[in-house]
Amino acid sequence: MSFDPLPLVASWRHEGARAGFEVAFFAEERGGVRVEGVTTATEDGESWIVDYVIHLDESWRTRSARITGRSGAATRVRLIEADGDGHWQVDGVAAPQLQGCLDLDLEASAMTNTFPVHRLRFPAGRPVPAPAAYVRAVGLAVDRLDQSYSRSDDEHYDYAAPEFDFTCRLTYDRHGLILDYPGIAVRVQ
Questions:
Q1: What is the pLDDT of residues 15-34, one digit of tens each?
Q2: Where are the domains of the chain?
Q3: What is the DSSP secondary structure assignment for residue 175, as one 8-state letter?
Q4: 117 sits in which H/E element
């Protein structure tokens, strides 16, 4: 599946699990794609804001990210680097728990589910593992999230994250960006 070029900007309204909004800006850069965005929400009575700059290589593998989060009175910054072959560093320290991950997944973002869909070639109806470095919205803890995607047609992928006992059908547009992430977010631009 090949997608149309990314738009300059896209935005999502959080709904269901949280109330809030996300805006992301896309730019092709030498050797890949840069994604800059901000997502804000209130979830379970706690409000947060997450600002991110993510660099992807030409194969859509995460290469680096600077993530700034604020919740309550605390502001945190995470610097994440990956070699594109599944080795990661978080704030300059090796992160062996992320071994084999090629994608970054922000809990705060619907947009980051774009990365594996662009990176992988999915045979129809067969789940493909896509473990990710998962960054929490509150506190910016980074852990491994085992997840899978299965393409049902060009617009729909079945998503599963067993750790959260969560499955859903994601809807994508012609750019490979999320249109509908049930219970999480819908695209508004």
A1: 998 999 999 999 999 999 99
A2: 9-187
A3: T
A4: helix 114-119
